[in-house]
Amino acid sequence: MNHSDLTPTLASTSEHLSAAPTLVDKLLAGNRRALARVITLIENQGAEAHDALAALYHSTGRAHIIGVTGSPGAGKSTLVNALAKAYRQRGYTVGIIAVDPTSPFTGGALLGDRVRMRDLSGDPGVFIRSMATRGSLGGLAQATADVILALDAAGFQRVLVETVGVGQAEVDIASTAHSTIVVEAPGMGDEVQAIKAGILEIADILAVNKADREGADRTVTALHMVLGSGATMRQVQHHGRLLDAGLPAPAPDDGWTPPIIKTVALRDQGVGELLEAIEQHRSHLQVSGELQRREEDRAHAALIRILQAAVLQRLHAAVPARQLHQLVADVAGREIDPYGAADRLLPAILSAE
Ligand SMILES: Nc1nc2c(ncn2[C@@H]2O[C@H](COP(=O)(O)OP(=O)(O)OP(=O)(O)O)[C@@H](O)[C@H]2O)c(=O)[nH]1
Ligand SMILES: [Mg+2]
């Protein structure tokens, strides 16, 4: 990878469509400005982004994608920072995406993360990007998946994706990552709450961070106790997803027991062990055939997301807002049932160009 080529890319607006291949060529050669521009195109979600992604897609599939999720304040950003440093010490290049579904694009939390990650800045082997919703319809998961593709194509070998584990976000990240790390911290209460939120079911690796604090061992014990049933839940969910997609069910047991690792991210303690666990999980995925299955899950999720977005886009193009609003009012007023209302809209959606 050649990160030294910092030839400025042309910034004129007329360049866009015709020069997309050039931009991708530069990205593939490791040009950071080209990568940044492609990511901006992706965030704007236009046709140019689709052209760029089509051109770079064949160069993807090499990066290992690591999701880092958990409760607010558990230490995810600090841990991502420490993991990135550890990977750099071992000679790997690292992309980092901080996904914040709640804050606006210039949110304070993200600025805080930038400050925290400053010891990585200036390293050409690291690329950091923050992402947040800007009111797009479910667009964040897709935009994140696309930015991961761009980093992968640019040659970053490990991509760390931080998401806050509240609501849908952690489920989305599980369908995007190869290895999902769930970060817990002692004294944040309630392991039971984490289990309720379904977050343990997606964990390939559990990190009990802030192990310098009291109660870390209790948290580890509690996690050990619930993990048995957690693993079963994970398989049930995985089966369900595949069956929904019309794919054959996998072997009943993928043979991986999520390790529980104590870390003190602030002092880089336990971080090497966490890195080893990620690399072991990667080997496990490759040897067991699970990697292939997860790639198919990822492809399935991406395709469905894209089709859903396309249908909504066509709906808004084909049906005036006023008419849609009236139909919604009719459904709410029991004038028409929702299935009947959808049947009325479908022909317009299907014939829209
Ligand atoms: N004592 C202790 N504090 C830590 C450790 N790791 C992180 N912290 C502190 O915990 C606070 C939250 O850390 P972050 O890394 O921002 O946590 P986060 O999970 O990314 O937070 P959000 O992104 O806001 O959800 C910061 O003040 C960190 O300095 C640790 O291992 N021990
Ligand atoms: Mg954070």
Descriptive account of the structure:
There is one protein chain. The protein is an alpha/beta fold. It folds into three domains: 1-58, no CATH class; 60-290, Rossmann fold (3-Layer(aba) Sandwich); 305-351, no CATH class. 54% of the residues lie in helices and 12% in strands. The protein has helices at 16-28, 32-44, 47-56, 76-89, 108-116, 139-153, 169-176, 191-196, 216-244, 271-288, 290-318, 321-332, 338-351, and strands spanning 64-70, 94-100, 126-132, 158-164, 179-184, 205-208, 260-262. The protein has a seven-stranded parallel β-sheet, sandwiched between helices. Helix 5 (108-116) links the parallel strand 2 (94-100) and strand 3 (126-132). Helix 2 (32-44) packs across helix 3. The protein is globular, with a radius of gyration of 22 Å. Magnesium ion (MG) binds at residues 76-77, 113, 162.
